[in-house]
Fold this protein.
Amino acid sequence: MSLLNDLATQLASGEVQVVDLTHTLDPDFPVIILPPEFGQCARFRMEEISAYDHRGPAWKWHNLTLSEHTGTHFDAPAHWISGRDLPNNSVDEIDPSQFVGPVVVIDCSKGAAQDEDYELTPEFITAWEGEHGRIPEDAWVLMRTDWSKKSGAEYLNMREDGAHSPGPTPEGILFLINARKIRGFGTETVGTDAGQGSHYSPPYPAHFYLHGAGKFGLQCLANLDQLPPTGAILMAAPLKIKNGTGSPLRVMALVPAPETRTTR
């Protein structure tokens, strides 16, 4: 209990701060666009039921329509064919202890600013570790690109050959899964894969390898520039949807206040 009491005291004093990593859900927030022969992800829609009026004099509420994978959202292993037969592969079956854990942030913002198709490689990861230390086992790894500062058409960045946005190479995501045994991988873009990830074999390798290994994904994150490279705790709990393959969620991080942080 003393640890929890200490945490409560540090939150109250500001020694530990809460950073919101979530975009606001609204009808204009972009969703992934697949080739037209496939089904498409629904945008967020909110319908008013009543607003302190004849439909309900003392209350206001809404009906919501959206995809499991709209806005800032969680991907469960059941989302991909490689994870369809794994045990406890849907959001309602995942051990809730998996929704809270350590997180590291690999800053790829300079590369992404110079190259819209920038990709995270094993070599970049090990160079980052040389400065910040080895990625701990069972940690979340977030790829910071500052892509979340874009909006509208610029965010999806669609052209005739598909989307153009940063993400990991197949070798990069396999390195994180096999050599670093991560819990999950998150991005600021609309998917955990690079925009051109459909051209790899297998297509969308981050999805294929992550979910085949029972790992989780986070997409459409924001404010990664407010997190330290190491030392934060991530909280990412999806809705408990029966057989759900994913869920919009409020992603937050607990971080030490800037004046209390130590750097390597």
User: Anything to note?
Assistant: DSSP finds six helices and 15 strands in the chain. The chain has one domain: 12-26+69-263. Residues 12-26+69-263 form a domain with the Glucose Oxidase; domain 1 fold (CATH 3.50.30.50). The longest helix spans residues 2-13.
